[in-house]
Amino acid sequence: MRAFLLRRALHAVFVLWGVVTAVFFLVRLTGDPTPFLVDQTATQQEIAEARHRLELDRPLHVQYLEFLRAVPRGDFGMSISEKRPAMGMVLEHLWPATIELAAAALVLSTVLAIPLGVASATHKNRAVDHASRLASLFLQSMPSFWLGLMLILLFAVELGGLLPAFGSGSVRHLILPAVTLAAAPLAQNVRLIRSGMLEVLQQDYVRTARAKGLAERFVIYRHALRNAAIPVITVTGLSLGFMLSGAVIIETVFSWPGMGRLIVQAVPGRDFPVIQAGVFVFALIFVGLNLIVDLLYTVVDPRVRLR
Amino acid sequence: MIRWTGPLLVALALLGPQAISAQPPTVEGVAIDPDAELVVGLADDTTNMDPRIGMGSIRSNYIRQVFESLVDVDPQGRPVPGLALSWKPVNELTWEFALRRGVTFHDGEPFNADTVLFNLDRFFRRNLDKWGLKDVLAATSFEKTYPFVTRWEKVDDHTVRVHTSEPSPTLWDFIGREPIVPRAYTIKNGVDGLNEHPVGTGPWKMVEWKRKTSMVFERNDAYWGTKPLFHTMRFQTIPEGAARIAALRAGQVALIEGVPPFDAPALAQDGKLKVVSSPQKLSCRIYVNARPKDKYDSGGKDGLFADQRVRLALNLAVNKDAIVKKIFNGYALANASPVASVSYGYAAQEPYPYDPARARALLAEAGFRDTNPLTLQLLFPAKHYGQSFDEMTPAVAEMLKDVGVQVTIKPVDFATLLQTASKGTLPPNGGFAACRTGNNLDADDYLRDWASISLINWAPYPPELMALYTATRREVDPPKRLKLLADLQRQVRDWAPVVALYQEVKVYALSARVLRFTPLPELNMDFRGVAVKK
Fold it and tell me: Would you call A54 and B137 a contact, using CB atoms and an 8 Å cutoff?
């Protein structure tokens, strides 16, 4: 296990280096942020001076080496638009807003998916199964901005302000964005659990467990579900990465002050430091989640060995 | 600006909360809530509060709640006294500002001539070492744009003179409209402190700023002018237009900006809401390459649109009334003057008629016929100016095609457009659709567009127009200068440096509980005198 962790840590360093390097050069391929910072009647000379003051006129390799030296310190430079440390900006959007929303959506999408998926599998081709599959189909097909707006119109406008239309800071504010964000992964998880359970329920050991006279609930949740859960863990890990790394549309519809919108706004504004810091944090999240998912496999399935 | 219903209300406001609790204050006979919070839904947050960093269309609205300038503006866009009571040229090379007395910043620091001198130092990046201030990358570098401003001096505690090396009739505007920051506070806290915790003289004190989320203001009870008649204001960022409307209809915000033109009538029919609008300075145009070959990265070719007849033909080919009616639902203006209709010195010009036949004839005269058609590579900054602009640009392209112009639309992100325009890499047959606005009041803000090569100048003034423009820059006598400005606008209209499309009309929707809100033709909203019904 220790060797596995060490090797994964080295892999992580390599992946992160690759990501920051790719992003460093890719964002510079998109062009120059200086025209954003000057008046529309600025002359070429004024633009060149602004570029010089931002030190963007230095050779690219000099900028890159300096960038690499600063990254281990968490120093991604100052945001070009806000003139504040870029990493600080990313972290203040990550916590609490993004993590709160992702955690709530994760809980909703897994906690609800388990009974729904199991019920669907154990009642195959009956009303519960049809309803569950139909609901999953709708939830997966609906564009999140449309679902979000419909929920706002229903709960904030038609039902007399039962829930707030925008903002953050309380559980009431969290409900609508979390439900919207959880919708697609919830549907996906229900379908995965259903298909996994259908497969597992045919296995000999389930028949044996039933033959031993174990209660059906015990057979399903103790023996079958655990084996049906591995693909769900994989997909949930990826979904969580998506949720944490920026559910941009949901943040936009609900005015949620998360990290996704910060990074997406930084792209057209060519705010290189914010993009670099944001992508670094995304990469870190994905690498970390992949590691956690791998470790979880060993917990769920003792046959899995990490080397 | 604000007319009171009677002296009783003035007395109540002056006597404070005890009096107000004894007798509810009223506006126009309606009881109001002086402790109310007004939530305003805006499309975006500001990136800075230090005005020196920049005053774009979003930022201005936040910054001008807290900071004021020497010259204020009324709802018609006319200059009125702000922190200066008056301004006048003392001679051809000197302007004098008489400052308002008894004004203090939110922290109690007095506003006086020393404050103005300190701000002038910041505008022109002088003495920053002496003040121990960090230089910020300002959007407008005064020392480059107005190099003829030579020095400034204090005459007494409430009088400042600014000297120039050449006559400068617009000095009252470009200096007078810049927000004024406190001297001692800025020196003590630095520009970062000023940016994070701004302290101005304005009607609102900023008390909380959650980036990308909201900014909360409290009424400045020591404000020298007409105070807002409610206590707290929250600028709430709601980026999505449909979500802003839903929040308004749910009663969770009281006022929203940027109402889509075709949503306005439905909102106006809701008895609980009102819709108001105001022309803005945002002028949207197609800029075409009319630069001579030595003025851009040309590969040895003059811009294809250097011929005045070609540019005039393009203007005649565009049905602006149809655009205003069909795409903007009437919430836009067709303006043939190069100057916004709300600017000081604006002179209305004869509209370009929609005349495709004449447009074809002019193109033929210029040598562009069916066998040798005019081509236009049109850069189009999609998703930048809003949905109506995005619908309009392809419509205009079709109108140009109708008169035989071969138009190729190339959607680009706004940054790419800026970069192309600033580097001068537009092709000879290139053009781009864009809008320009300004923080200044004077017509010069628009007319200088074609005086020196900049990212929006793709048709430099010919010598005779340059001479006339220079004359407007030298004439300090207002009536004579207004006449010159009108003459220049007429000639620029005929010379047609751009394809004029429309001038923006901004639409706001608000709760019927909000009283006396009048939109400004400026980038900011003004809540002085605004009240909230009890």
Answer: yes
Take residue A132 and report the two structure tokens written for it: 């569950």
pLDDT at position B19: 45
Average pLDDT over residues A268-283: 90
ipTM of the complex: 0.81
Low-confidence stretches of chain B (pLDDT < 50) are 1-21
pLDDT for residue B14: 44
What residues of B are in contact with residue A253 (Cβ under 8 Å)?
A: 240, 243
Does B436 sit within 8 Å of A40, measured CB to CB?
Answer: yes
Tens-place pLDDT, residues B353-411: 999 999 999 999 999 988 999 999 999 998 888 888 999 999 999 999 999 999 999 99
Contact B250 A47 (CB under 8 A): no
* A41/B449 Cβ within 8 A: yes
Burial B60-81 (b: 16+ CB within 10 A, else e): bbbbbbbbbbbbbbeeebebee
Tell which of B128, B437, B454 to mutate to test the A interface (max A CBs under 10 Å).
B454
Tokens encoding B433: 């659709």
Res. A245 pLDDT band, cuts 50 70 90? low
Question: Which residues on A lie below 8 Å from B133 (Cβ)?
Answer: none
Q: Which has the higher per-residue pLDDT, A95 or B155?
A: B155
Q: CA B139, B141, B145 angle in degrees (round to 5)?
A: 120
Reported confidence tier of residue A4, pLDDT bands at 50, 70, 90: confident
Here the tokens at position B396 are: 């205009």
Please give the C-alpha separations between residue B384 and each of A265, B273, B299, B332, B381, in angstroms, as whole numbers. Answer: 12, 28, 30, 17, 6
Distance from CA of A100 to the nearest CA of B (A): 16
Which one, of B492, B457, B453, B458, lies nearest residue B472 by Cα?
Answer: B492
Residue type, A10: L
Nearest CA-CA partner of B270 in B511, B482, B49, B17: B511
pLDDT score of A98 more than 60: yes
Query: What span, in angstroms and rounded, lies between the C-alpha atoms of B367 and A38?
Result: 39
Q: Name the residue in chain A with its Cα closest to that of B144.
A: A46
Which residue in B has a C-alpha nearest to residue A34's C-alpha?
A: B419
**Phi first, then psi: what are they for A129, rounded to 5°?**
-65, -45
Contacts of B99-104 with C-beta under 8 Å, sequence gap 24+, read B99/B70, B99/B158, B99/B159, B99/B160, B100/B158, B100/B224, B101/B158, B102/B224, B103/B201, B103/B224, B104/B201, B104/B222
Containing B430, the helix (H) or strand (E) segment is strand B430-436
Q: Omega of the bond prior to B260 within 30 degrees of 0, cis?
A: no
pTM (two decimals): 0.87
Distance from CA of A84 to the nearest CA of B (A): 9
Give the C-alpha separation, A82 to B269, whole Å.
40
Q: Which residues have a Cβ under 8 Å from the Cβ of A88 and sit 6 or more positions away?
A: none
Q: Does A253 reach chain B within 8 Å, measured CB to CB?
A: yes
Q: Rounded CA gap, A97 and B454, in Å?
A: 42
Q: How far from chain centre, in Å, is Cα A245?
A: 4
Q: Is the pLDDT reported for residue A290 higher than 90?
A: no
Contacts of B128 in chain A (CB under 8 A): none
pLDDT in tens, A145-173: 899 999 999 999 999 889 999 988 899 99
Task: Judge contact between B475 and B169, C-beta under 8 A.
Answer: yes
Nearest CB to B239 within list A40, A81, A252: A252
Q: Is A154 on the interface with B (CB under 8 A)?
A: no
Q: How far is A58 from chain B (nearest CA, A)?
A: 18
Strand duo B37-42 + B255-256: pairing? parallel
Per DSSP, what are the bridge partners of residue B377? B408, B430
Cα distance between residue B501 and residue A66, in whole Å: 47
Q: Which residues contact B259 (CB under 8 A, 6 or more apart)?
A: B241, B245, B267, B275, B507, B508, B509
Q: Which pLDDT score is estimated for A299? A: 75
